Amino acid sequence: MHAVIVTFEVLPEKVDLFRDAILANAAISLETEPGCVTFDVLKSPTAPQFMLYEIYRNADAFQLHLGMSHFHDFDRISTDWVVSKKVEEFGRINNVT
After folding, report:
1. Residues 38-91: pLDDT tens digits?
2. Which end of the chain has the smaller Cβ count within 10 Å, N or C?
3. Domain ranges, residue 59
4. Secondary element (H or E) of residue 86
5. Is the separation of the CB atoms in 7 and 70 below 8 Å?
């Protein structure tokens, strides 16, 4: 398994637009990408911050995600709404399910 954690700080006036766009991106990823196992979208209750918790079958499945048109559409429309973005990738090191 390959985990990806992405944190975004969003312009306060764009929170609703960002939320709608990232929820759509997550739903399409889960529906159309066989390698996408989990795509959780989390929102801070006190700040214009979001966190994505994504699980892919492997690193190749994540790279496939990055090439998908829905990812590029989301990235293109949301770029001006984002103050900061941090992407972290983690590989599973145990076999517990």
Report:
1. 999 999 999 999 999 999 999 999 999 999 999 999 999 999 999 999 999 999
2. C
3. 2-91
4. strand 82-91
5. no
For residue 60, CA distances in Å to 2, 56, 82 come to: 9, 8, 26
| Burial call 12-21: b when 16+ CB within 10 Å, e when fewer | eebbeebeeb
Which tens digits make up the pLDDT trace of 7-35? 999 999 999 999 999 999 999 999 999 99
Number of H helices, E strands in the chain: 3, 4
Cβ atoms of residues 84 and 17 within 8 Å: no
- Rounded-to-integer distance, Cα 14 and Cα 82, Å: 9
Residue with tokens 């979208």: 41
CATH code of 85's domain: 3.30.70.100
